[in-house]
Amino acid sequence: MLTLVIGDKNLSSWSLRPWILLKHAGLAFEEVRLPLDTPQFHAEIVRYSPARRVPVLLDGATRIWDSLAICEYVNELVAGRAWPTDAAVRAHARAVSAEMHSGFQALRTTWSMRATVTNLQVPLNADAAADVARIDGIWRDCRERYGAHGGWLFGNYSIADAMYAPVLLRFNSYGAELSPTARSYRDFAMQDPHLQDWLLGAAREIADEGRPTDHV
Predict the structure, then answer these.
(1) What is the pTM of this model?
(2) Topology of domain 2-80, CATH
């Protein structure tokens, strides 16, 4: 049985990525949630991760503690179905996923993950605005190339969609100005039942625990 260790659903963008991929892959897993920035988190995370960060995937004696590495492991568990089948398209999907994994720091810092909140008014500086424009361009390019094959970035759901799921929530929370094509993708992806389940879980956490609603 797989176990995924995550942080707060309202706050932890990195936790969302492998969680939603596992859901789309149809793999059963146990969810262990550690509230971020609490004594409980610092006391318990050492049991799961040498990096002392979430997410962490446990599969028997195997431990993977990076979101993209977890997604690649999930891809192996489902015989490669988490990436596009065509080699060139797969390379494109990997490139935009890696760009998300390592980039867009200005956007991350300016618009922190607050999954359940909308109508936030936080202005973007020039670097963060450039990040939004670049993501808009990625989404437009993917949808224009692969839209005939389905509603996700590369037609079928892939790791690329999982990697950009927290951006969807940021754009939804802060009201990002998007091109019609990018906005259409955002609206489509926001209706994903698994993403809606994540948001319901985030709302329950806040109601049950009075957790804070702000985290980078």
Answers:
(1) 0.94
(2) Glutaredoxin (3.40.30)
